[in-house]
C-alpha cells in the first residue's frame, strides 16, 4: 500500500515514520522549501512518547527533549507558590511507562525528518488538487507533478488545502486569545544550569505566563492574553514580531521575577490563537485528515502535536489491519480517533478560560483547588485530573476498540 501525505509538519513527519515502520510505501509533500515549523516549544506527555518507544525512536527524542522535573504555579502579584507539580521523566516513566519531554519545534522536526529514508520527503511542493476514483487517489501540485497512491492523508494544518478541496471550506475560529512567544538561548544565561529543569507559570486576571523549555538548550516564554480583537493588530490574523518592551507593558504590575523572565527574550512573536469547530467527518473515500487539519486545538492542555501523533499511530494500525480495503481502514481510523480528539479540543477551550479567570472569587477558588490538589498528589501523572489524557496507550485502545466493534457485529 502507498500513502501520500500532504504536510511536512510534526503530524505529517510522525505519520510518515509510523507508516514506514508498518512497512508501507510513503511519499510526503510539504509546500515550504524546508522545515515548516516556527514558534517555540512542544510537549510530549507519556501518551505520545510511548508511540516513539513502539517505533524504536524513543532514545532519539529523549536526546533532544528537556525532561522538565518541576512546575511551580505562582501568584502573579507576589511570586508566592500556589502549587508544585513534579513532572520529570523519571516520574512519568515510573507511573506511566514513558517520559514527559519538552522540545524546540524546529529542532524536533529536523531530528525526526532525518529518520526518513532519502526520497520520501519532497519540499517546495504546493498541492492544488486532489482526485480519487475506485482504484487510487492523486495529489496534483502547482508545478504539474502528480503523486498517486492508495490513500492520501491531509496533515497540512489548520488552514488545510486538502480539507478544503475534499471536505469543503472550514473557517478557523479566533479564540479571542493571543500568545506572545519568546526564546532565551542557554548561551545568554550564564547560570542556565541552575534553571534545569524547573518550569514556572503565573496565572493572572486575563493573562497567563509560562516559563518552560524548548529543548535542552533554550528557555521558552509564552504570555497568553484573553479578550483580544484581531482588528486591534496591524497584521490581523497573521503572526508578527513585536518588541520586548511591548510585552513588558502588559505586566507592569506583576511581581519582579516574572518581569525579569520576560525581559530576557530579545523579541517576541505575537500569535493569534485559532482552532476549528469539531468536525463530524475526517475520512472521505481514499482521503483522510490528520492533526490540525482534522482537529486544530488551542494550546492550553499541551496536546496539539500529541493528538497528531496519536492520529498517526491509529492510522498506521487501521491501514495494517485492513490493508486490502483502504477506504474501510480510513473509516475505522476516523471512527476510533474522532471522539477523543474532539474531547481534547473542547477541553482545551474550557481550560483556556479557567487559566485566565478575571473574577477575584473564581480566581481564589481555582487557586485553592490547585493548592489542595498539589498537597494530595504523591505522583503527578498517575493521579492527575488529566489522567484520561496522560495514561492513554493509543495502540492498546485501538485494539480494544476493534475487539468491541467485532463483538458488536457478532451480536
TrEMBL record:
SUPFAM superfamilies the record matches: FAD-linked reductases, C-terminal domain, FAD/NAD(P)-binding domain
Domain FAD-binding: 2-344
Molecular function via GO: FAD binding; monooxygenase activity
Domain of life per record: Bacteria
Coiled coil: none
InterPro entries assigned: FAD-bd, FAD-dep_Monooxygenase_BioMet, FAD/NAD-bd_sf
Pfam families: FAD_binding_3
Keyword set, alphabetical order: Monooxygenase, Oxidoreductase
Signal peptide as annotated in the record: none
Protein name, as recorded: FAD-binding domain-containing protein
Organism whose genome encodes this protein: Propylenella binzhouense
Amino acid at each position: 500500500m502507498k500513502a501520500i501525505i500532504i504536510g511536512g509538519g510534526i503530524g505529517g513527519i510522525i505519520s510518515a515514520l509510523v507508516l514506514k515502520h508498518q512497512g508501507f510505501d510513503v511519499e510526503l509533500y510539504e509546500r515550504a522549501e524546508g522545515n515548516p515549523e516556527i514558534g517555540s516549544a512542544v510537549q510530549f506527555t507519556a501518551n505520545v512518547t510511548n508511540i516513539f518507544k513502539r517505533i524504536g525512536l524513543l532514545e532519539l527524542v529523549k536526546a533532544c527533549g528537556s525532561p522538565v522535573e518541576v512546575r511551580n504555579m505562582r501568584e502573579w502579584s507576589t511570586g508566592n507558590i500556589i502549587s508544585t507539580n513534579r513532572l520529570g521523566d523519571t516520574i512519568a516513566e515510573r507511573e506511566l511507562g514513558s517520559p514527559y519531554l519538552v522540545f524546540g519545534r524546529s529542532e524536533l522536526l529536523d531530528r525526526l525528518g532525518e529518520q526518513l529514508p532519502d526520497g520520501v520527503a519532497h519540499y517546495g511542493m504546493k498541492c492544488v488538487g486532489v482526485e480519487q476514483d475506485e482504484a487510487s487517489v492523486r495529489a496534483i501540485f502547482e508545478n504539474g507533478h502528480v503523486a498517486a497512491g492508495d490513500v492520501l492523508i491531509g496533515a497540512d494544518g489548520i488552514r488545510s488545502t486538502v480539507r478544503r478541496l475534499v471536505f469543503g471550506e472550514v473557517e478557523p475560529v479566533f479564540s479571542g486569545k493571543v500568545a506572545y512567544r519568546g526564546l532565551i538561548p542557554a548561551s545568554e544565561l550564564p547560570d542556565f544550569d541552575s534553571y534545569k529543569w524547573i518550569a514556572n507559570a503565573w496565572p493572572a486576571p486575563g493573562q497567563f505566563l509560562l516559563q518552560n523549555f524548548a529543548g535542552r538548550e533554550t528557555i521558552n516564554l509564552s504570555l497568553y492574553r484573553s479578550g483580544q480583537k484581531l482588528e486591534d493588530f496591524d497584521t490581523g490574523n497573521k503572526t508578527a514580531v513585536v518588541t520586548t518592551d511591548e510585552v513588558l507593558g502588559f505586566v507592569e504590575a506583576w511581581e519582579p521575577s516574572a518581569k525579569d523572565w520576560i525581559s530576557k527574550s530579545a523579541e517576541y512573536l505575537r500569535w493569534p490563537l485559532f482552532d476549528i469547530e469539531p468536525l463530524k467527518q475526517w475520512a472521505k473515500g481514499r482521503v483522510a485528515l490528520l492533526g490540525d487539519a482534522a482537529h486544530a486545538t488551542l494550546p492550553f492542555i499541551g496536546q496539539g502535536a500529541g493528538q497528531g501523533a496519536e492520529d498517526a499511530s491509529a492510522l498506521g494500525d487501521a491501514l495494517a489491519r485492513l490493508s486490502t480495503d483502504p477506504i474501510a481502514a480510513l473509516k475505522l481510523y476516523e471512527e476510533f480517533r474522532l471522539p477523543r480528539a474532539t474531547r481534547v479540543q473542547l477541553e482545551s477551550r474550557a481550560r483556556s478560560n479557567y487559566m485566565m479567570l478575571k473574577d477575584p472569587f473564581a480566581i481564589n477558588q481555582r487557586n485553592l483547588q490547585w493548592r489542595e490538589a498539589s498537597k494530595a498528589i504523591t505522583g503527578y501523572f498517575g493521579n492527575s485530573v488529566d489522567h484520561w489524557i496522560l495514561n492513554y496507550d493509543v495502540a492498546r485502545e485501538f485494539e480494544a476498540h476493534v475487539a468491541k466493534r467485532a463483538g458488536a457485529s457478532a451480536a
